[in-house]
Specification:
The protein is of the alpha+beta class. The protein folds into two domains: about 1-30; about 40-145, Macroglobulin (MG2) domain (Immunoglobulin-like, Sandwich). The protein is built from one helix and nine strands. The chain has one helix spanning about 5-30; strands spanning about 40, 50-55, 65-70, 75-80, 85-90, 100-105, 110-120, 125-135, 140-145. The strands form two sheets. A six-stranded antiparallel beta sheet has the order 4-3-6-7-8-9, with no helix packed on it. Strands 1-2-5 form a three-stranded antiparallel beta sheet, with no helix packed on it. The longest helix has 27 residues, at about 5-30.
Length: about 150
């Protein structure tokens, strides 16, 4: 083998090792992180036009969470998470809306918490179903259900 061919072969092998090393370094430092908002309400059967308290944990820090009442989307406001990704706020439900609805609390990165409500009910602790996704390149996809019992 000529000196030129050996040099080219060595350079190609070195380049392949560098690419493999960089890929390993990037994959070990780009581990997915679980920043998905988990929310609960103090009552899942609020009265018509009543006020509910929403408590959220585990979200991204210092972001605005959007609160929307669904069937027909009705914006109820926003709350900003603190440096730990937690937030608490109270919202007043619109008068004239009763029945089964879903309260959606969403973050700007695609995560959300969905809490079923029966408006016009007797007032019991809330339940929520969470979904989260990461659109900024990190691999994050999560889904869970839980009962907020305290």
């Amino acid at each position: 083998m000529s000196v030129t061919k050996r040099l080219i072969t060595a350079l190609v092998a070195l380049g392949a090792m560098l690419v493999a090393g960089l890929a390993a370094a990037v994959s070990s430092t780009a581990a997915p992180y679980a920043h998905h908002v988990t929310c609960s309400v103090n009552v899942s059967n609020p009265s018509e036009g009543g006020t509910i308290t929403i408590q959220c944990t585990g979200g991204h820090h210092n972001v605005d969470l959007t609160i929307t009442l669904h069937s027909k989307p009705v914006p109820l406001g926003t709350v900003t998470t603190d440096a730990s990704g937690n937030a608490t706020t109270s919202v007043t439900l619109p008068a004239g809306i009763t029945g089964h609805h879903t309260l959606i609390i969403s973050d700007p990165r695609g995560g959300s918490s969905a809490i079923p409500l029966t408006i016009g009910g007797s007032g019991t602790a809330g339940q929520a179903t969470n979904t989260a996704s990461q659109s900024s390149g990190s691999a994050l996809s999560a889904s869970c259900s839980w009962s907020a019992a305290g």
